[in-house]
Specification:
The protein is α+β, with helices and mostly antiparallel strands. Among the domains are: 214 residues, Alpha-D-Glucose-1,6-Bisphosphate, subunit A, domain 3 (Alpha-D-Glucose-1,6-Bisphosphate, Chain A, domain 3), CATH 3.40.120.10; 75 residues, 2-Layer Sandwich (TATA-Binding Protein), CATH 3.30.310. The chain contains 13 helices and 20 strands. The strands form eight sheets. The protein has a five-stranded mixed β-sheet, sandwiched between helices. β12 and β13 form a beta hairpin. The longest helix has 19 residues. The protein is globular, with a radius of gyration of 27 Å. 31% of the residues are buried.
Amino acid sequence: MISGSASGVSTLADGSYSIQVAPGTTLTFQYIGYKAVEYTVPDGRTQVTCNLEMQSDTQALEDVVVIAYGVRKKGTIAGSVSTVKAEKIETTPTAAFDQALQGQVPGLTVLSSSGEPSKSAELTIRGTNSINAGTDPLFVLDGIVISASHNPPEYNGIKLFDGQGFKLPDAVEDEIEAIVTQPVDYTNTVTGSNLGRVIQEPDMGMVYVKHIVDSADVKLNGLKVVMDCANGANSEIAPAILRTLGAHVIPIFHEPNGININNGCGSTHLEALQAKVKEVGADCGLANDGDADRLLAVDENGDVLDGDQIMLICALDLMKAGKLKDNVLVTTVMSNVGLAKAMKEHGGSTVKTAVGDRYVLEEMLKHDYKLGGEQSGHIIFGDLVRTGDGMMTGVKLLSSLVRHNQTLSQLGALMVKYPQTLLNVRVKDKNGWQENQAIADVVRKYTEELGDDGQVLVRASGTEPLIRIMAQGPNQVELDSITEAIAEVVRKELA
């Protein structure tokens, strides 16, 4: 490549090449899996032979995944997937990524309109070059989401996903964090054209809308729904999904300005949604959090349905259709005791994991379970998504409402919620709290007192300097006393 431009040539299979450039021109030699090398053409000569040795790049890609858009099961992968190993790319005599895919993927054809590396090829997958009526195929290597989850924007962090839509394992995230926190050698950083580019994909929102709409098995005609968008990612998309399915939608908190996300709204602030549902006489209300991976609901009376109740409704639907493998629902240790009891009453069972939808997903993938989630509203439909998806959950819940011809309060009553107390204690340092003997002793004491009809859970927040204390059982007054007693120990030891 001519440095600073998009012009250049590709080598032949034996590595030979020729290029006409002016003296003094700097050339950049690039090859997948190797570090780039620069060479400046000397003055005073009409022809120069340049042979270079390139060093292997230890950060080269391990896999390239080409995904034909759609949700089709292949093992544990959502979509039709072909994998091209790095060594296949590295041994292909071309510097162009698209050209390197020729002959590597069944059904993929690469047609070049020019020999210039800067000119992209036309790619067709089984005869079409479109994931959405006129756009190019989608190449997904990795993905990130910048999100504060349900928190204010100052708590923004990064969620990392691989090319198959899975959150990265803890060990991989720890490795990335270690790299990021290392001192930066600014004399050796990537700059200019080597940095990459940002590509806006204006149609991706509609691809997502279509995916959710296609997953619905009934229309939502006649339903009046208040949609709290949390001034977040789904502010335009969520109402569009519901309207496409036929619902009458009243959106609230759907005008994000970058700093009002989750501000007195969304799945952790349901008061405005409850009031609006009763004001307009809606059949129900739905609430996402800022990045829309959660969903909580409000029934026609303004009462809240949490993730446990929503999971039960959806689980019983899948059981009735014979689509819930082994009649198992995957939950976390935060789920209410009443959920496990309700599943058992209806011939099902629950399996518990640590808090976090990634751990729910791991358990689901291990046994091919079809449904799992958290009390907070992260719910995963195993055949359709690979992480919590608030609008997928919302559509499935509303579909159940229509299919059973019942009110949301009637469906919510399928589960008897045991009283629960949740107390957050702000601490100076949450790290290492698990090794604190005093905290362990007080938790053990009250766990034994509650027995099989309750539970005690203490954990650190994943996003804030908080220790969260939860107790469940038949007596609310007793639970309040238990959580405060544990909180007193936590404050003494960590605050």
